[in-house]
C-alpha cells in the first residue's frame, strides 16, 4: 500500500555531485503560523497495520474528506463534523471514532493505493486505484462503482488523476512501468495513450495533470527520476527532473511551471520548468525521515506551504522559501515540537497528508497514519506577520 509497505525500489544511486543542490534564501527562517491539533479520529479497537491510511483527499469544494488504505474501505468525512465550533478558544482535542464520524463508507474489492475526485462532478464521483491493478469510479450518492478498467496486467496501481481541462480523461501509473491515459466515455476500454517512462520498466509511483490547465503531466518513477509529458502528445517526455538519489514517490504542482517532488532519499525538491524543455532545482527540503515508504506529500498553493509525513511518526510542514521545516508535530496526540527538537516515538509512520486549498489567514492540514488514525490540524497566521 502506498504507505506502510515499501515503495518500489530504485536502482543503486550513483555518486552525487558534492556541490549542494539546495539554493537557500538569505532571509532568516521563520514560522508565520500557529498550528493546533483540532481532532483525532481513530478506531475504538486496537489499531493494526491493516488499518493503514495510504491516501487522504479533499473534494473540490474543500468540505469533504475521503480516505482509503489497506482496510479496503473508502470513508468520507464532513470537515465541519471533525472540527470544534470554537477552535480558537477550545484547548481540548476532539476525539472521534471512524464509524460515528464518517459520512459514508464504501467497501472495496481490493486494498486501495490512491484516490482522486473527478473534476466537474459536484463531488459525486471518486476515482480509485488498487492493489489488483484496477481503476474504478464510484458514485458516492448511489454507493456503487460506475466505471472499471484493468489494463495494467494485474500489477498494482500506485496513482490515479484526472485532467482538469478534460475531466473525462484520466491517467494511472502502475508497477508495470507504464502510465495509461484513458477516457471514461470509451466503452471499449481502449487507452488514449500509453507511455513507458523508464527503459527498464521501473514502477510508476505517481502521476498528476497540471491543475492550472497547462499541458504538462508529471510522472514520478522508481528509476530516481520524474518526467513531464505534454498531455496532447504523450510520446516522449518534454522535460526530465533528475537529481533524486532514490525512488520518486510523489510529484505535485505548486503553480503552472513549478513542481515539488518527494523521494525515498529523504528529501523533497522544488523544480522550475524552463522554456525549451529544461528544469532546475530551486530548493531542496530536508528534515523528515523517508527511506523506503510512501509518506504523503501535499502543497497548499495559496499559502506556499508543503506538508509531508515521516517514518518516525511525525508530520512536517515546510515553507516553500526555506529548506528546513518550520513546524513538526509528533503523531501521538501530544504537543507540537519545535523545529529540531525531539526525534519522535520511532513507531509507525505518517503515511498520508492533504491540505485544504482555501483560506488566507487560516489553513487546514489532514494527516493519516499507519495505525489508521486520522488527525486534523488547523493553522492561524500569527498577528505579527
Automatic annotation (TrEMBL):
WD repeat feature ranges: 171-185, 241-281
Superkingdom, natural source: Eukaryota
- From the Swiss-Prot or TrEMBL record, state where the protein is found: Cytoplasm, Cytosol; Nucleus
Q: Does the keyword Repeat apply?
A: yes
Recite the UniProt keywords alphabetically: Cytoplasm, Flowering, Ligase, Nucleus, Repeat, WD repeat
Instruction: Show the segment(s) annotated as Disordered.
Output: 1-26
Polar residues compositional bias: what residue ranges?
14-26
Q: Name one GO cellular component term.
A: nucleus
Segments of skewed composition (Low complexity): 1-13
Q: Which SMART domains match?
A: WD40
The record's listing under Pfam families reads:
WD40
Q: Which PANTHER family match?
A: WD REPEAT-CONTAINING PROTEIN RUP1
Instruction: Tell me the protein's name.
Output: Ubiquitin ligase protein cop1
Question: Could you tell me which species this protein originates from?
Answer: Cucumis sativus (Cucumber)
Amino acid at each position: 500500500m502506498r504507505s506502510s509497505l515499501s515503495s518500489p525500489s530504485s536502482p543503486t544511486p550513483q555518486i552525487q555531485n558534492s556541490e549542494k543542490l539546495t539554493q537557500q534564501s538569505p532571509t532568516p527562517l521563520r514560522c508565520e503560523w500557529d498550528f493546533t491539533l483540532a481532532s483525532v479520529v481513530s478506531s475504538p479497537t486496537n489499531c493494526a497495520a491493516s488499518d493503514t491510511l495510504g491516501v487522504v483527499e479533499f473534494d473540490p469544494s474543500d468540505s469533504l474528506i475521503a480516505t482509503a488504505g489497506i482496510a479496503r474501505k473508502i470513508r468520507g468525512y464532513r470537515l465541519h463534523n471533525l472540527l470544534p465550533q470554537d477552535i480558537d478558544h477550545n484547548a481540548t482535542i476532539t476525539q472521534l471514532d471512524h464509524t460515528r464520524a464518517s459520512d459514508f463508507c464504501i467497501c472495496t474489492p481490493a486494498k486501495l493505493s490512491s484516490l482522486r475526485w473527478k473534476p466537474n462532478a459536484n463531488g459525486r464521483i471518486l476515482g480509485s486505484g488498487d492493489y489488483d491493478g484496477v481503476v474504478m469510479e464510484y458514485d458516492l450518492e448511489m454507493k456503487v462503482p460506475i466505471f472499471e478498467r484493468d489494463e495494467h496486467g494485474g500489477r498494482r496501481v500506485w496513482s490515479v488523476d484526472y485532467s482538469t481541462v478534460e475531466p473525462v480523461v484520466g491517467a494511472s501509473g502502475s508497477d508495470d512501468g507504464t502510465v495509461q491515459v484513458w477516457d471514461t466515455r470509451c466503452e471499449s476500454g481502449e487507452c488514449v495513450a500509453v507511455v513507458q517512462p523508464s527503459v527498464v520498466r521501473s514502477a510508476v509511483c505517481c502521476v498528476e495533470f497540471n491543475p492550472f490547465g497547462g499541458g504538462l503531466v508529471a510522472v514520478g518513477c522508481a528509476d530516481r527520476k520524474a518526467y513531464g509529458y505534454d498531455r496532447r502528445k504523450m510520446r516522449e517526455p518534454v522535460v526530465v527532473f533528475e537529481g533524486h538519489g532514490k525512488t520518486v514517490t510523489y510529484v505535485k504542482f505548486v503553480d503552472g511551471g513549478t513542481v515539488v517532488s518527494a523521494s525515498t532519499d529523504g528529501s523533497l525538491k522544488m523544480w522550475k520548468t524552463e522554456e525549451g524543455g529544461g528544469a532546475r532545482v530551486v530548493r531542496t527540503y530536508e528534515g523528515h525521515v523517508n527511506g523506503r515508504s510512501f509518506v504523503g506529500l501535499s502543497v497548499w498553493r495559496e499559502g506556499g506551504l508543503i506538508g509531508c509525513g515521516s517514518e518516525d511518526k511525525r508530520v512536517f510542514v515546510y515553507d516553500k522559501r526555506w529548506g528546513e521545516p518550520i513546524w513538526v508535530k509528533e503523531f501521538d496526540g501530544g504537543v507540537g515540537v519545535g523545529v529540531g527538537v525531539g526525534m519522535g516515538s520511532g513507531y509507525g509512520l505518517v503515511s498520508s497528508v492533504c491540505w485544504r486549498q482555501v483560506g488566507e489567514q487560516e489553513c487546514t492540514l489532514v494527516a493519516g497514519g499507519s495505525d489508521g488514525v486520522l488527525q486534523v490540524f488547523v493553522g492561524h497566521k500569527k498577528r505579527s506577520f
